[in-house]
Amino acid sequence: MPTDPPAPMTGQDTARSARFEQQVLPYLDAAYNLARWLSHDAGDAQDVVQEAMLRALRYFDSFHGGDARVWLLTIVRHTYYTMRSKNRQDDLHAELDEDIHPLVDEGPSPETLTLLAVDVGALRAALERMPPALREVIVLRELEECSYKEIAAIIEQRIGTVMSRLARARERLRAELGHHPKEVRRHDVR
Amino acid sequence: MMCDDARLLLHAYLDDELDAANSAAIAGHMRECPACTARYDAYATLHKALAQPGLYEKAPDALRQRWTTAAEAPATIVRPRQRRARMPLSVAAAAGFVAAMLLSGPAWLQLMRSGRVNHELVADVISGHVRSLQGQHLMDVVSTDQHTVKPWFEGRLDFAPRVKDLGDEGFPLIGGRLDAVDGRSVAALVYKRRLHVINLYQWPVEAGVPSPQTVVQEHGYTVIRWSDAGMQYVAVSDVSESDLRQFALAFQNDGSTSGAR
After folding, report:
1. ipTM beyond cut 0.85
2. Does A103 touch chain B (CB under 8 A)?
3. Chain A: residue nearest B118 by CA?
4. Residue B222: which H helix or E strand, with range?
5. Which of A5, A47, A86 sits opposite B183 (nearest CB)?
6. Who has the most CB within 10 Å: A59, B130, B223, B245?
7. Integer Cα distance of B171 and B244 in angstroms
8. Coil vs helix vs strand at A189
9. Element spanning B257, H or E
10. Residue A163 backbone class (left: φ over 0; alpha: ψ -120 to 50; beta: rest)
11. Class of domain A13-84
12. pLDDT tens across B3-36, in order?
């Protein structure tokens, strides 16, 4: 529980709620999509979004215009990593994983990819095998259609980093698609 | 341009994020390099494949409903100034309740005062409850024995919380921890109801003004507040409202005899 006091409430709670519903709630799908892809699990994703929305509501007074989607997705991502940080091993693994996967292009030929890539199941499985740091940029760019600038704001990195990470992520995804075309999904929704 | 540079830049080119000069350089390179062209085509295919709607995970209805009704939550707080004319039965009942509160004087003032901080406090305790369920935050002292839990708080708080095991009533005590509500340190007792967790917060308030029990539901959690013998109690959980009411009742039983302070 944060020790800093919540934003002071005025007599305009109802107006505030209405503003929150109008400005933030439209991005509930975006929030869930990111949380779901980060956490692998539908139940965990709901917990992450629930907590993120509570935080967003609590700190809504500090949101002064701007892009509500970027603002909410930043909170969702923070919430996910805070909740996950209890699992140190998982964290460590993700970083190591990223280190040992530099920019290498050993994917299958483009012809193979064309056939594989249209299969949603294979794409999903390949995405879920990727480390979170790479998966999140793919999700933000390809699924959420964020610009590099928006991604940079959400993952709190420079645009140059976004560009190189996205390149790495796509090469990794392409390699995953080639290496495990038939593997059964490991992270089925319960 | 070298293929190594192109391998990085073709992604930005694909995403239409390159300036004119670099775009021209990439396009020029691809005209001469079949390998990079093939690469680009592969990522363009991947880009299209990832745009399939089946991959986008929409928020479940239950989650959406929580937040759509949540926006109306502040309106559910009792409004003292209702007119009597042409109101539905439920509002009439509420007005009757309010009238009773008006007659009782100080209690009404207390309700008004608490009404103002209600929403903030409810958000605070729910947030605390959710946080307590993550990782190892749930308990600082793990014990089902009230005589272990109560002394643990000694020296950690400026008051002695009331600790009761309610195992016989179906709410076994499993531990306690320090928490913060509304900017002050409070005692949090942790109880179980089957697989659910109930957090009971308590802290001292001005004695002598008992405030009535209030029940608020928000974001799928039930929050019950009451005060007794100079202590403010707030119970929060995702169990059903009737279960939490039963819990509050069980805790209040024998309240006056077991030394609340």
Report:
1. no
2. yes
3. A9
4. strand B221-228
5. A5
6. B223
7. 10
8. coil
9. none
10. alpha
11. mainly alpha
12. 888 989 999 999 999 988 899 999 999 999 999 9
- The residue whose two tokens read 């509304």 is B182
Per-residue pLDDT tens over the stretch B194-230: 888 899 999 888 766 667 788 888 878 889 998 888 8
pLDDT tens readout for residues B179-198: 888 778 889 999 988 888 89
Kindly tell me the burial class for residue B218, based on how many C-beta atoms sit within 10 Å of its own C-beta (0-12, 13-18, 19 or more): buried
Q: Tens digit of pLDDT for each residue in A26-77?
A: 999 999 999 999 998 888 899 999 999 999 988 888 887 789 999 999 999 9
Phi first, then psi: what are they for B198, rounded to 5°?
A: -115, 130
Nearest to A32 among B57, B127, B136 (CB): B57
For chain A positions 121-180, those within 8 Å of chain B (CB to CB) are 123-124, 127, 138, 141-143, 147-148, 163-164, 166-167, 170, 173-174, 177
Over residues B69-80, the mean pLDDT reads 43
3-state secondary structure B123-187: HHHHHHHHHHCCCCCCCCEECCCHHHHHHHHECCECCCCCCCCEHHHCECEEEEEEEEECCEEEE
Asked if CATH classification 1.10.10.10 holds for the domain at A88-179, the reply, yes or no, is yes
In 3-state terms, what secondary structure has residue A185? coil
One-letter identity of residue B26: I
Position A113 confidence tier, pLDDT thresholds 50, 70, 90: low
